[in-house]
Design brief:
The chain is an alpha+beta fold. The protein is built from nine helices and 20 strands.
Length: 376
């Protein structure tokens, strides 16, 4: 029997199992493992594989910093259903007839209420959420897990990434916070928890895994989402996607209507940069290079004599722009920005946005088989 190098993986029991008792399946696994190793002269290598028996301790740790957000928005409704028709037909005699017949009916104001989620990132009351949760809201109320309720004000919004920063004032004590982790370290298959307010069901916790990274779902130039199968529903928007260390690695933002297990979250590394600018200035300032770019399709790559279709293709350069002064021309392919690989136009925009004000920019340009670094 060959025994050298055999590894036996024994699952960790975890805290949730009763001391002195083993699950039947686990007992059978250990017995079979030991039977296979019987007669081996060399001691086996035992590798303990950790897996969560319960998420209760983690939930207790992170849930106090997750908040429910309710908003009220004033919506103006036309006084009668033909008002739009009248406005489009001011010179039509029949339009005048109907307007005179129905008379002038004043517009009405309706209060529209909606629900969302957020999480506290600063002990002074800063809360990160989605822009679409608080956009156009006349009143924002925040409810904590201990039932305390506060009014909140918008500090800043960034519609392009669908992120917003709001603030509450707590006169009682310092608030619990969640830390933004490193979303670049997340791997497909990692466990995650989603906490939110789906359909008004406060502080609902669901679990799942990271299904994919770098997902493009057609939301704009900053389209770079984490995909998860943790159940996410209307009302979860703005809530945290949490790893097993209790760090936020994503902000739950979108779902596929009618789909199951298809949720999308903004990566925490993108949120860090946006939140910092919103807290500092209330707005996000983005760098301008003066180029139009597009994806390198397989057909374009073949026309350039390239084997791969990675990079961002420059299709136009604005006259007198920083790009033109640096020597960038239409047809160039940008492969790196500040030493960060650029595989798609989304990578290009993301790297450009991470540049701080006044910071130099280094581009790796490829054309006609050559590569040149440019400093802007």
């Amino acid at each position: 029997m060959l025994c050298s190098g055999i590894k036996t993986k024994v699952p960790s029991l975890g805290k949730s199992l009763v001391p002195g008792r083993l699950l039947p399946g686990l007992t059978l696994l250990i017995v079979l493992s030991l039977s296979l190793l019987a007669g081996c002269k060399e001691p086996p290598v035992i590798e303990v594989v950790e897996f969560p028996q319960s998420f209760a301790d983690l939930v207790d740790k992170v849930q106090p910093a997750v908040v429910n957000i309710s908003t009220t928005t004033t919506v103006r409704v036309p006084g009668h259903p033909f008002q739009h028709f009248f406005e489009q037909n001011r010179n039509d005699p029949f339009g005048d007839f109907f307007e005179n017949f129905f008379g002038a009916v004043p517009d009405r104001e309706l209060k529209q209420r909606s629900l969302g989620t957020g999480f506290i990132i600063d002990k002074n009351g800063l809360i990160l959420t989605n822009n679409h949760v608080v956009e156009r809201a006349d009143e924002i109320k925040v409810r904590l897990t201990d039932s305390r309720e506060f009014k909140a004000a918008v500090i800043g919004r960034d519609p392009k990434t669908d992120l917003a920063l709001i603030k509450i004032s707590s006169p009682f004590e310092k608030l619990p916070v969640l830390l933004l982790g490193d979303s670049d370290q997340i791997r497909v298959g990692d466990w995650v928890l989603a906490i939110g307010n789906p359909f008004g069901l406060e502080h609902t916790v669901t679990k799942g895994i990271i299904s994919a990274t770098g997902r493009v779902i057609g939301s704009g130039v900053y389209d770079n989402f984490l995909q998860t199968d943790a159940p996410i529903n209307p009302g979860n928007s703005g809530g945290p996607l949490i790893n097993l260390r209790g760090e936020v690695i994503g902000i739950n933002t979108a779902i596929v209507p009618g789909g199951q297990g298809l949720g999308f979250a903004i990566p925490s590394n993108m949120a860090k940069a946006i939140a910092a600018q919103l807290a500092d200035k209330g707005v996000v300032t983005r760098g301008w290079l003066g180029v139009s770019i597009q994806k390198v399709t397989p057909e374009l790559a073949a026309s350039f004599g390239r084997q791969d279709s990675l990079g961002a293709l420059v299709t136009d350069v604005v006259p007198q722009s920083p790009a033109e002064r640096a020597g960038i021309k239409a047809g160039d392919i940008i492969k790196e920005v500040n030493r960060r690989p650029v595989k798609t136009p989304d990578d290009f925009y993301a790297a450009l946005d991470d540049r701080k004000a006044g910071q130099s920019l280094i581009l790796l340009r490829k054309k006609n088989g050559g590569a040149v670094y440019l400093l802007l």
